[in-house]
């Protein structure tokens, strides 16, 4: 028989088998568009604007629908009601971490973000405990953030009011806060090792949000055999892990079990306590990956939110003016803002919440997975099925936020101008997998943004009406576009910021 004919017959049978495999077992999964053999619904899906695609499918199939990326089904939850019902009401069933081929190749089930089962429970419990021990949500970490905020102001002053891109400076500031907890180390903004690390992390963030990574996740067999930016991502991650391991070894040499200095010390002490337990999750692999997880979560989203916030404040100078007026009234210009001030600054608090809602940095959070066969509404989702959650569909739900496409701090203010929260506000996700560093990030956002607006006027390099706030990526992360601005000092004197930061924070009457 002609070899070409054999190939065509074989390929046709393979396609038929693939189509059957996709349909088989689909029985009680939510409805969705008909997948093509092998490639699934990829051609019907805009990987550069996931929210647009989700909206289109939800109009046809409802708030819970099934897509195929490759040959595996993924159930998508769209809208507040579906997300709350899954992550809160059925939190345990939806608490698994779904597959992500590229990240799984690096993390191998270790750490806190990409792990499952007992590893996840132990690493998450330990991480939360130690973060709290070293001050997350307390005054001790607040002092560290205020100190870093002063260093940030000093770096911004060095720009001397000339146009600059704030990306790197904001990322360094956020990274130094989490570094103080994990390493008890502060990196100088000019440190070459630190600079290289930040560059690698920035490169990996862009790669992670690329369309190519979506392809790799749909067809994991490609990862080991074809070139692509995923190889750069893996290489950068390996270099970061090597740097973390070097820090761990330094800690091992100087460890004092009676006086733990930071997160790594506490983990090493726990490792020593459980060294004879064969079931212990406290291993070097879990320490490296958990450290990397905390750095990633504590750096990128916070710095990107701040960067988006500055862009929006330039776009809407009337909002900025009201925030600065409130800062002048509550804090003044002679001391550094503190967390006590937030309760007396409803408009500033509302602006911070609206920045997070509108920016929607974690637009589609990392995939979840159902941990057992789960009855959800009128469907039966098999154990191990990946779940995609659209936080954008929650933050842009008109039931929770009238005119959600408009940046409006009024979304978080009542008729009397008092701050009001919203159940539809989920920038850190919700349920069992809610971000472990939520309170730390909220403190950073408030303190960094208020001190910047206390000390500087934000001057755009273009007319505010011409500022484009459209995100550059709408995949895993929604990142602000690159831009420049001028930080014009409000005062013509040199403030002793470090002294002010460490002085008692006494709100003005």
From TrEMBL:
<keyword id="KW-0472">Membrane</keyword>
<keyword id="KW-0560">Oxidoreductase</keyword>
<dbReference type="InterPro" id="IPR001128">
    <property type="entry name" value="Cyt_P450"/>
</dbReference>
<keyword id="KW-0256">Endoplasmic reticulum</keyword>
<dbReference type="InterPro" id="IPR017972">
    <property type="entry name" value="Cyt_P450_CS"/>
</dbReference>
<keyword id="KW-0492">Microsome</keyword>
<feature type="binding site" description="axial binding residue">
    <location>
        <position position="435"/>
    </location>
    <ligand>
        <name>heme</name>
    </ligand>
</feature>
<keyword id="KW-0732">Signal</keyword>
<dbReference type="GO" id="GO:0020037">
    <property type="term" value="F:heme binding"/>
</dbReference>
<dbReference type="InterPro" id="IPR036396">
    <property type="entry name" value="Cyt_P450_sf"/>
</dbReference>
<keyword id="KW-0349">Heme</keyword>
<dbReference type="GO" id="GO:0006805">
    <property type="term" value="P:xenobiotic metabolic process"/>
</dbReference>
<dbReference type="GO" id="GO:0005789">
    <property type="term" value="C:endoplasmic reticulum membrane"/>
</dbReference>
<dbReference type="GO" id="GO:0006082">
    <property type="term" value="P:organic acid metabolic process"/>
</dbReference>
<dbReference type="InterPro" id="IPR050182">
    <property type="entry name" value="Cytochrome_P450_fam2"/>
</dbReference>
<comment type="similarity">
    <text>Belongs to the cytochrome P450 family.</text>
</comment>
<dbReference type="GO" id="GO:0005506">
    <property type="term" value="F:iron ion binding"/>
</dbReference>
<protein>
    <recommendedName>
        <fullName>unspecific monooxygenase</fullName>
        <ecNumber>1.14.14.1</ecNumber>
    </recommendedName>
</protein>
<feature type="signal peptide">
    <location>
        <begin position="1"/>
        <end position="21"/>
    </location>
</feature>
<keyword id="KW-0503">Monooxygenase</keyword>
<dbReference type="Pfam" id="PF00067">
    <property type="entry name" value="p450"/>
</dbReference>
<keyword id="KW-0479">Metal-binding</keyword>
<keyword id="KW-0408">Iron</keyword>
<dbReference type="GO" id="GO:0016712">
    <property type="term" value="F:oxidoreductase activity, acting on paired donors, with incorporation or reduction of molecular oxygen, reduced flavin or flavoprotein as one donor, and incorporation of one atom of oxygen"/>
</dbReference>
<dbReference type="InterPro" id="IPR002401">
    <property type="entry name" value="Cyt_P450_E_grp-I"/>
</dbReference>
């Amino acid at each position: 028989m002609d070899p070409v004919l054999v190939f065509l017959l074989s390929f046709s049978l393979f396609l038929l088998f693939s189509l059957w495999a996709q349909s088989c077992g689909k029985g009680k999964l939510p409805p969705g568009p008909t997948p093509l053999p092998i490639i699934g619904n990829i051609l019907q899906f805009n990987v550069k604007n996931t929210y647009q695609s989700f909206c289109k499918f939800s109009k046809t199939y409802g708030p819970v629908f099934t897509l195929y990326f490759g040959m595996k089904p993924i159930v998508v939850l769209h809208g507040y009601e579906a997300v709350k019902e899954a992550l809160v009401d059925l939190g345990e069933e939806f608490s698994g971490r779904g597959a992500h081929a590229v990240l799984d190749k690096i993390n191998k089930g270790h750490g806190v973000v990409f792990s499952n089962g007992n590893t996840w429970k132990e690493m998450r419990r330990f991480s939360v405990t130690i973060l709290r021990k070293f001050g997350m949500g307390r005054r001790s970490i607040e002092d560290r953030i205020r100190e870093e905020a002063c260093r940030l102001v000093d770096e911004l002053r060095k720009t001397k009011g000339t146009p600059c891109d704030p990306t790197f400076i904001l990322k360094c500031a956020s990274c130094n806060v989490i570094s103080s907890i994990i390493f008890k180390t502060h990196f100088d903004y000019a440190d070459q090792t630190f600079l290289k690390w930040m560059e690698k992390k920035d490169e990996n963030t862009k790669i992670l949000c690329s369309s190519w990574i979506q392809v790799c996740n749909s067809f994991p067999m490609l990862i080991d055999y074809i070139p692509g930016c995923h190889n750069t991502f893996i290489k950068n991650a390996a270099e970061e892990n090597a740097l973390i391991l070097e820090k761990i070894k330094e800690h091992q040499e100087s460890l004092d079990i009676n006086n733990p200095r930071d997160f790594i010390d506490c983990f090493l002490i726990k490792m020593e306590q459980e060294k004879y337990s064969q079931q212990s999750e406290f291993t070097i692999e879990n320490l490296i990956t958990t450290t990397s997880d905390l750095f990633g979560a504590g750096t990128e989203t916070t710095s990107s939110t701040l960067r988006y916030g500055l862009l929006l404040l330039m776009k809407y100078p009337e909002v900025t003016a009201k925030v600065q007026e409130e800062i002048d009234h509550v804090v003044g210009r002679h001391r550094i803002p503190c967390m006590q001030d937030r309760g007396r600054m409803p408009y500033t608090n509302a602006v911070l919440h609206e920045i997070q809602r509108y920016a929607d940095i974690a637009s589609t959070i990392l995939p979840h997975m159902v941990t057992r066969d789960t009855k959800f509404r009128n469907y039966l989702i098999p154990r191990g099925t990946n779940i995609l959650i659209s936080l954008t569909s929650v933050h842009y739900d008109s039931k929770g936020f009238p005119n959600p496409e408009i940046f409006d701090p009024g979304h978080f203010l009542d008729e009397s101008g008092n701050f009001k929260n919203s159940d539809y506000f989920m920038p850190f996700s919700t349920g069992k997998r809610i971000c472990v560093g939520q309170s730390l990030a909220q403190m950073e956002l408030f303190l960094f943004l208020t001190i910047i607006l206390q000390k500087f006027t934000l001057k755009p390099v273009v007319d505010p009406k011409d500022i484009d706030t459209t995100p550059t990526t709408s995949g895993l992360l929604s990142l602000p576009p690159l831009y420049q601005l001028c930080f014009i000092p409000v005062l013509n004197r040199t403030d002793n910021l470090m002294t002010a930061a460490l002085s008692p924070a006494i709100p003005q009457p």
